[in-house]
Amino acid sequence: MTATVDPSATAPPDARPLVTVRGLSFHRGERVIFQNVDLDIPRGKITAIMGPSGTGKTTLLRLIGGQLRPDAGRIEVDGACVHELGRRELYQLRKRMSMLFQSGALFTDLSVFDNVAFPLREHTRLPETFIRTLVLMKLEAVGLRGARDLMPSELSGGMARRAALARAIALDPTMIMYDEPFSGQDPITMGVLIKLIRTLNDALGLTSVIVSHDVKETASIADYIYLISEGSVVDHGTPQALERSSSAWVEQFLHALPDGPMSFHYPALPYAQDLSLSKEAALD
Amino acid sequence: MIERLQRLGRLALLSLARLGKATLFLLRLLGALGALGKRPGLMIRQLYSVGVLSLPIIAMSGLFVGMVLGLQGYTNLVDFGATSTLGTVVALSLVRELGPVLAALLYAARAGSALTAEIGLMKTTEQLAAMQMMAVDPFARVFAPRFVAGFIAMPLLAGIFTAIGVLGGYFVAVQQLGVDSGTFWSRMQASVGLVDDIIKGVVVKSVMFGWVANWIAVFEGYDATPTSEGISLATTRTVVNTALAVLVLDFVLTAIFFGV
Amino acid sequence: MGTLKKLELAVGVFVVLGLAAFFMLAMKVSNIAELGEDKGYKVTARFENIGGLKIRAPVTLGGVRIGRVVGIDLDPRSFEALVTLSIDPKYDHLPADSSASILTSGLLGEQYVGLEPGGMDDVLKNGSTLKLTQSALVLEKMIGRMLTNAAAGDQSPAKTP
User: ipTM value of the model?
Assistant: First the structure.
């Protein structure tokens, strides 16, 4: 049997988190990416997972989506243990999850319209007129209805992400995962994306998971934040709670301070010694 | 010295592992073939891309190879007064060997590398991962249509190459060099067996080469490192590995079919 | 989608071209014309030595191709070679006493069976046997004979009249 239900389900179903991660450990090659990580993604809210580059935030999304298997621990989405599902059940689960990739990942040989229509055409048997209506609705939500016949190569980066977002909501998923949605965008596009993520989340009753290292933008819409570094959760809480955190690391990260627990200098010999200005050298 | 042996051993193990990976890939690919019937449009698009677009290079090369065979054959046979066999020489060379082999090599260079690059690019831009996350199997939607289309296109291209080659040889031999037209064709027809040469040669060989060439092209794209450097390495590997595989397979098939 | 129609057309043309190429190869390049020829009637001939004669070798009369060799066997009792010829049914008035020889086309060419017509009124039918045959000339034997003749020639001046 595959799906397991949380035995302590005494609380009303809506209050239980959509995704629970317990004791997750994962390594790639010799590098430990996650060490005994615990996470809860609450329903209907925007949860942000933040941390320095390279800490494996994207990997976490892939683990939740079942593209990777954890070495240890348990990941449950809506009660089903993701990495124990067979291929068919996994695909069924994935129809309710959506992921927005960093580059948008639009299919380059299809127009914007066809890209958004793709999940509908693949997974439903709706007639083309229905599909057309749905696609136009999704495109309207992201503001790209007029761009429907453009090819991905003709879109700017921000537009490509919005189109990908329209595609991600095509099947009305339960959860959307955003992989670095703000990276490399100009301020206006960022503003557009921020507004879209928040509005869609509330209007469609979605659960959103944002993986990012853009602190200001993410913190402005996140309901809950997890800070991950070096393979474990350093701290978590609402944006306000984290502001008041006593951890020096959290302070450095949230306020983008150049130096602190994450030191500015790459480990090296003492400066004076390197420049041969130490006492011994001077005597030569 | 020991180091060199170790490195060789490691290389051999890596190659073996890679072959195993490729085989598993192929099995999964074959498993996805069933779903293709629902999407003829995909296959047609791919057939256009690997078949129709390869026609110019195949036709041109076939023509020139045939003409060269006619010319070289003539210059070497005329000393023995045996130019009446020129038709046979041209036809047998093309049908048994040059047609399927050269067509396969050209295919790998043009269509195979394009397939690898396209799939590698889809991998790098996360399109394949996006497809998986949308619960669509890339094997069914991306790999299988390309593999099958190439598998169908390869023998057709080899046939066209061979036929045009024979015509090219005819053109040089008869029109340019004065070999008697009737002799050219009648001696050829007497010596080229339908089953023994054409089927065992062009047909069987090109089908097997098509299998190998498309398997390698699609696999290398799937397995490419998702960086621009990775894609470039993968396309190189496609052309090189296909060439090697085709030539080795050709030797084996020739030994089986035409060996003594 | 209009482009799909164009693509389909192009692909259709491509497939037709490919099949046409194979058709051309089968028709013009191969010996497919001969494959239907087993409507011919079978005649056997015995030879002491068939030399390099192979199946599918042509059978000619007066230089005209009238059939081909379809079978080569060894008679287990007389140790003669048994060659089965298939003759085109439109040549149905060959005298029953025609002779068959194994000849070589050109100096180094392939070997074939050449028939020479006899004079009888009876004609060859399916199952007939040719009685008069001439085996192939085997190069080594010829050379051997030449050498022995040369040797005998040296010794014979006293015998010549």
Answer: 0.78
